[in-house]
UniProtKB/TrEMBL annotation:
Species assigned in the record: freshwater metagenome
SUPFAM superfamilies listed in its UniProt record: DR1885-like metal-binding protein
Ranges in coiled-coil conformation: none
Protein name, per record: Unannotated protein
InterPro entries in UniProt: LpqE-like (IPR007410), Lxx211020-like (IPR058248), PCuAC_sf (IPR036182)
């Protein structure tokens, strides 16, 4: 008489660390049809998967992400980044840090994400450092024009040992 129907309850988990996943997706979306390579090698330093997104939360600013790999046996240090004033007033090295929210309600252990400028970023020997949402990034201060998805622009990364490495940044939606 009665159909035994199983009721499936779907539990939605709000995962706040999506940045790791989206980075993986970004790495997989290899659309190399444009003919331009965003990979620049200044051995032993290589910079890959260079992309930028404009940030609605930071009006007028943009963020650039990439992976720096060091295949050498000596450590290097990213000391600064620079960009044409046709793109932005200035490029800064930033990191995102988690802070306990000062005004938390009872039982609420919320954390705030805050970004701050860093003087340099160490690139270990035979290792790599990911600049990604929620972590290290290059902040483009006071964009001259909004970053248009699909456009590209050059960015220079200055390393203590490898010197200036110019990369092409591809603007993506996220
Ligand atoms: Cu920033």
């Amino acid at each position: 008489m009665s159909t035994s129907s199983k009721r499936r309850s779907v539990i939605t988990l709000l995962v706040t660390v999506v940045s790791v996943l989206s980075l993986g997706l970004a790495a997989c979306s290899g659309s190399d049809s444009a003919g331009t390579s965003s990979t620049t090698v200044a051995a032993p330093i290589s910079v890959t998967d260079v992309w930028a997104r404009s940030s609605a939360m930071e009006a007028g600013n943009g963020a650039v992400f990439f992976t720096v790999a060091n295949s050498g046996s000596a450590a290097d240090t990213l000391v600064s980044a620079s960009v044409s004033t046709q793109i932005a007033l200035e490029a800064q090295l930033h990191e995102v840090v988690m802070m306990e929210s000062p005004g938390t309600m009872a039982g609420d252990s919320s954390q705030m994400m805050k970004m701050q400028q860093v003087a340099s970023v160490a690139i270990p020997a035979d290792g790599s450092v990911e600049f990604k949402p929620g972590g290290f990034h290059v902040m483009l201060i006071d964009l001259t024009d909004p970053l248009v998805v699909g456009s590209t622009f050059p960015l220079t990364l200055n390393f203590a040992v490898a010197g200036a490495v110019q990369v092409m940044v591809e603007v993506r939606a996220s």
